[in-house]
Design brief:
Layout: H1 3-17, H2 19-39, H3 50-58, H4 70-87, H5 96-108, H6 111-132, H7 137-218, H8 223-252, H9 271-282, E1 285-291, H10 299-320, E2 324-331, E3 335-342, E4 359-361, H11 370-381, E5 385-390, E6 396-403, H12 406-413
Length: about 425
């Protein structure tokens, strides 16, 4: 570490902790500088009296309070300096105390006080030079430049302090915004995990309940079918446990041991397997129909498509008493339309649907269950929309529209 890099923070800490210590040292230095030309007088300087000592001290000692009362200090020094110059003719070569207070006023005082003090000192220097009589032009220029330079340094210090304060305020504001963004991200992640857990558990439990109800019926008449039902229950439970372990791994991972191994979330490519699983486990005839040209989707949209289809089929198994269901994937130029329609009893005319006879948009969602609410939230999170209600030929229909042109536009831009 260099001497300068260590010295500056040390001075800043001392100045902030005890301002009188630094300002007192500055006042002592100014008093010493003012006394030099009287300690070593020239040929034209008269011997210094005790009144001269007092006037010289009056230009230096008020500097101890220069940051506590900058304008009052400047006024005191501004009165003592010309009095010293008039009493001890000729005037001092450098008005050390005046330069310090000009710097202080320019750095700390409001604009009216700054302008008043600058104009006063310029006039005072001019009158002092005129009173001296035999001053040469370069002396006048030197004194004027000293006054202007001290004031300019104070202005620069004030601007730098304001700039530093603005940077610190901006850093604090960015830190607060970063903390708020982090908290929002955590809340969104918790909501996503909750939706995924609901979809996985609801789907797995529904299939297991259907198989468990069918097993005792055929355990004596068709042991092979009963055995297949129990195998399906076990397979569904293992699959649900694996998916839950994958989702909860992000919450329970040991940071020192590294992230656990997690498989990717299911997407559009996993829909055929989902359709087969529901059909094999429940006996529901599920058909997957795809129209248009499939293309890559953003990861969150891929997961949303799978979870929406999973939740819709789960609701069909649990509530619809349907014999068949159709999963339609319609790829258009700018969006993907997913619809799951069954031939079950449909929404109750006096219950969940409220008597509506057709699809209901997400602004007036027909069913208050968490599953359909999750479908709406998933679609909205991906920039899409969702509808749920009676199908065109009876039964129940869930339809979701998701943007599907993002990847294509990104590829074109790349």
């Amino acid at each position: 570490m260099s001497a300068r890099s260590w010295f500056s923070p040390a001075v800043a800490r001392l100045r902030d902790s005890n301002p009188y210590a630094v300002d007192g040292a500055l006042a002592a230095a100014v008093l010493f500088a003012v006394s030099l030309q009287w300690i070593f007088p020239g040929g034209r300087d008269a011997p210094l009296t005790w009144q001269g000592h007092l006037l010289g001290a009056a230009t230096a000692l008020p500097l101890v309070w220069r940051r506590r009362a900058p304008f009052a200090t400047a006024c005191a020094v501004s009165v003592a300096t010309p009095a010293m110059a008039v009493y001890h003719a000729p005037a001092p070569d450098v008005v050390y105390g005046g330069l310090v207070v000009l710097y202080t006023v320019a750095a700390l005082c409001p604009p009216p006080q700054r302008r008043f003090m600058l104009v006063g000192w310029l006039l005072g220097v001019t009158l002092t030079i005129v009173h001296k009589g035999d001053a040469r032009p370069f002396e006048y220029a030197f004194h004027l430049m000293s006054v202007v330079s001290a004031y300019a340094l104070g202005v620069l210090a004030r601007v730098q302090r304001a700039y530093t304060a603005a940077l610190e305020d901006r850093a604090r504001r960015l830190e607060r915004e970063r903390a708020a963004d982090t908290e929002r991200a955590r809340a969104q992640e918790r909501a996503r995990i909750a939706r995924d857990m609901h979809d996985i558990l609801a789907h797995a439990v529904s299939l297991m309940v259907v198989q468990a109800e069918a097993g005792p019926v055929v355990v004596h008449s068709d042991p092979a079918r009963a055995e297949a039902a129990f195998d399906a229950i076990a397979g569904t439970g293992r699959d649900a446990m694996a998916q839950l372990r994958r989702i909860l791994g992000v919450l329970t991972e040991d940071r020192d041991a590294g992230p656990p191994e997690r498989l990717p979330q299911p997407g559009v490519a996993a829909l055929p397997g989902l359709v087969r699983q529901v059909g094999d486990s429940t006996g529901l005839r599920v058909t997957l129909r795809v129209t248009g040209e499939p293309r890559p989707l953003p990861p969150d949209t891929e997961v949303a498509v799978y979870r929406v289809a999973q939740e819709a089929l789960t609701n069909t198994v649990k509530h619809a008493y349907a014999s068949s269901a159709i999963v339609d994937l319609d790829w258009t130029e700018d969006e993907l339309r997913l619809a799951v329609t069954d031939d079950g009893r449909g929404p109750d005319a006096s219950g969940a649907d409220g008597g509506r006879s057709g699809p209901v948009a997400d602004e007036s969602w027909p069913v208050g269950g968490h599953g359909l609410i999750g479908i709406r939230e998933r679609a909205a999170a991906c920039g899409g929309s969702a509808e749920a209600g009676r199908g065109p030929e009876g039964g129940f229909r869930v339809a979701v529209r998701l943007p599907a042109a993002v990847q294509r536009r990104q590829a074109a831009l790349g």
